[in-house]
Amino acid sequence: MNKTIVVLGTQWGDEGKGKIVDFLTENSDFVVRYQGGNNAGHTLIVNKKKIVLHQIPSGIMHKKVISVIGNGTVISPTSLVKEIKMLEANNICCKDRVYISPNASLILNYHISMDLAREKRLNEIVIGTTGKGIGPAYEDKISRIGIKIYDLANLNVLKLKIKRVLNYYNYQLVNFYKEKSIDYKVIFNELAQSASFILSMVRNVPEILYKAIKDKKSIIFEGAQGTLLDVDHGTYPYVTSSNSTVGGVCTGTGVGPKHLDYILGVSKVYMTRVGLGPFLTEVFDEIDDYFFLKGNESGSTTGRRRRTGWLDIVLLRKAIKINSLTALCLTKLDVLDELKEIKICIDYKFSSINSSIRKEDFIFSQNTLENITPIYETLPGWNESTAGITNFKFLPILAKKYINRIQELIGIPIDIISTGPSRDETIVIRHPFKI
Ligand code: GDP
Ligand code: IMO
Ligand code: MG
Q1: What range defines the domain where residue 127 resides?
Q2: Which ligand sits closest to the CA of 126?
Q3: Strand order in the sheet with 307-312
Q4: 237 and 353 share a domain?
């Protein structure tokens, strides 16, 4: 059946969205990115080959699929061109298969310099960003001084715009951050070189997607980051600068909410976070080392070691509500294989919370975190390999019990379970395109 499906992260990113989008793309005509930029790192393993995508949607490995980059994204032209070259070098043809909205915003060198300068300055809030200039690029968009993809079509106007914005940034970089100023010519010349190539990919994205829906084509909307990194619903200020939750699909592509048929949340069976910010169920010592080694938990974009912790059902329930999830996909089940005991955080205990705040009105923020401890339920591990299993009935009984318990706690179906990084290491309980 033809459908529109959203695949988004329910945690702090790196849930395995890329693998799942690539797996589901077999049944899709379009895969669309709606927010974020090259802060994302989506890993696909197909025929033992590893490809990490940052800006190109994860459907590109399937020849007939069109990859669309929506207006809600921020695009680094330099990194986009590099990514396309990397794909072409791997025999993945991108010609006439990548469409870009003219309204997407550009990430330029001064955004990166500002991002890095802020992170270096100790008396500002250090977020632990990816250093890709995401925050400053989105700030420009909201301040209405951003440079858009369509600006590449008029190089004279582009030059003036860059000069004007750089005045503002160079003043801050030099006088406030004591960093080097940036010459507009460097930025302009680089853009001028790639302009016609990038413009060749420009399409009217809302019209194309509207027509696709009317023509009963299938579309996957691919989220970057995750619910807890959403600028409105995440653990602010330790978040990214876009709406990674489901609302971002509509604003970031121009497709209305009535046209979203099925929303799949992706969750690891444990949790990870790169960068700073609250993480209530974080583990340290040998369990952290176990997750790091067995789960290969190094960031796909920056190579940083990911912080690790137990699955937090309170946060998962929040992600289910905010995104109106149809179902959940659990990833990395195989990573739990050697654990004697597995913990799930089923609730929070509030110690001395301010009496004017009721528990149910609690906002997950850095301020209130100090007064909360997680309440855990402990389940027995199965001590057997689940790696590569493709049928639920072949899972160890204790693994089945673990999954069933999560399903009971969250109240929505678990439709997909991932048992390894490769496309085929996947258990499908209900196929999103076939129900
Ligand atoms: P994304 O940003 O959500 O697409 O996730 P990343 O690609 O950044 O990180 C997920 C990591 O887990 C990648 O290295 C994947 O290859 C890997 N992965 C995905 N699913 C599984 C799984 O079920 N088992 C194991 N062991 N690894 C997985
Ligand atoms: P994918 O799509 C994990 C984190 C950064 C930092 C915060 C803000 O691969 O899941 P930014 O550079 O966006 O201003 O950084 O967000 N972050 C991610 N963490 N996965 C990602 O993307 C991330 N993109 C940003 O580490 O904590
Ligand atoms: Mg990632």
Answers
A1: 105-198
A2: 2
A3: 270-273, 307-312, 341-350, 372-380
A4: no
